[in-house]
UniProtKB/TrEMBL annotation:
Annotated source species: Albula glossodonta
PANTHER family linked: RETINOL DEHYDROGENASE 7 (PTHR43313:SF47), SHORT-CHAIN DEHYDROGENASE/REDUCTASE FAMILY 9C (PTHR43313)
Transmembrane segments: 182-211
Keywords: Membrane, Oxidoreductase, Signal, Transmembrane, Transmembrane helix
Protein name from the UniProt record: Uncharacterized protein
Amino acid sequence: MLFYLLGLVVLLVLYRWYRETKRVSPADKYVYITGCDSGFGNLLAKHLDKLGFCVIASCFTEKGEEELKKASSERLTTIHLDVTQTESVSRAAAFIKTKVGGKVNKMMKEEFDRLPDADLMKVVRCMEHGVAAVHPRTRYSPGWDAKFFWIPMSYMPTCIADYMLLKNVIKPAKSVSDVENIFYGVLQAILSNLLSLILASIAVIAVAYYVRDSLKIGSIDQKWVLVTGCDSGFGNLLAQQLDQQGFNVIATCMTEKGSADLKHVTSPRLKTVILNVTDSASIKNAEEFVRTEVGEQGLWGLVNNAGRSTPIGPTEWMHLDDFKKVLDVNLIGLIEVTLQFLPLVKKAQGRVINVASILGRLSLTGGGYCLSKWGVESFSDSLRRDMHHFGVKVSIIEPGFFKTAVTNLDLIEKDLRRRWNQLPAEVKDSYGEGYLEEYLKAQSFSMNILCSSDIAKVTRCMGHALTARHPRTRYSAGWDAKLFWIPLSYLPSFISDFTVSALLPLPKDN
Ligand SMILES: NC(=O)c1ccc[n+]([C@@H]2O[C@H](COP(=O)([O-])OP(=O)(O)OC[C@H]3O[C@@H](n4cnc5c(N)ncnc54)[C@H](OP(=O)(O)O)[C@@H]3O)[C@@H](O)[C@H]2O)c1
């Protein structure tokens, strides 16, 4: 059996090597590269030019253009590009269109200025493989540090990654005492004797984890919690539950109606404030209100829950503004609210709880939603590491699919139909006449199976993050998140790509 398995592995490696060595012919193939004044872009332009590709290289300065022209063949053309200027980008796009005519071109944007690894050719070789290989890979990780340290570390449980990153960091003057670090010390001891300890300690660790996880904080009636987006959904239910538990809740709502409805079903202790997370003045106003209410106690909990999902759908159907609409609420709004309220949370050595999604682990569709939730994951990771020294704990909630306004199919479908009707005929044609109906049918089929109406699963996670003495870093709510989406996000991209594409219809021009 072992022999067959080894043989299979060798065959797979050989097949992969053979596939990877196949290259497309460079003749008449246009490649557009931005940021060619220096670094990777410059080196890649010269390298591809030598291989025979028709390179169009954009530079920021005239000097860069001249030097590059001198160092390459006549085939290579240069163009001025300032990516911060819309006009400059349009001019470059028009130039490339006339140059390549109907031919397909590849766009690459690489702007890496400061990398510790001086062997830039490692990066250029990867780029060249991406451009010229018949079967380009989905992801390349040039550099030994990426391959052997950063990428493996990104797959480790956050407690290990945090321990390794925090180990050698210089602590701020007002750092919380080392008692907080005992967990990491114990973890290190366990890891260093892992093999000898593993069997004997599994049961002990499981019991210890359970006990640790169930320890609760005290004096709930003296603690203040702010929850955003309480008109409906998770935020609304959480505000009610925290109020019943005795917390001093300040619930932010978008509308007066949402605020009045919530007050109607809660105790007089619960306060509401109108907050639009995309409006800085509104955030400042809410912060002043909260500062006066909480006084010297500070804010124990900040639950960043407000969010929106639409427009959501195939990337090609979106405009830049569609991305901004969602990012402004789910990411930029969340960051601005956090920054405004952080001093109050720091005062209470409290908690920040950010609502991300499994779509922050695996991008299932286009539009700003998945992007925003990946951003929330990343922002929360940085915040957790930075605030660790001050006793502030940061938790991320990753719900699967739940029946709320965010997953309301009527709203999503209405938006998609409007978009489809506005698409250019050429784009519609590439998807095929019946694509929209098939897409909506497939979406409604999977959402009806996946969406759970038990939204208390999510608020229980939020409640744990607020009341546990040791809140978890990540909470995945719902069976679909725990058993399907999160495991899938750890698998190689060809498996997740295959699974995700099986959920939706194929365009006509597939
Ligand atoms: N439902 C799911 O399957 C699911 C899965 C993963 C993550 N999430 C996340 O969970 C969070 C809560 O969503 P939900 O499912 O409970 O849906 P929801 O009922 O629509 O709740 C979102 C809340 O955010 C509010 N909101 C929207 N834009 C805002 C803005 N600019 N400023 C302040 N508040 C704003 C909404 O107010 P209006 O009602 O007035 O618009 C609503 O009260 C969101 O961050 C969402 O992305 C949901």
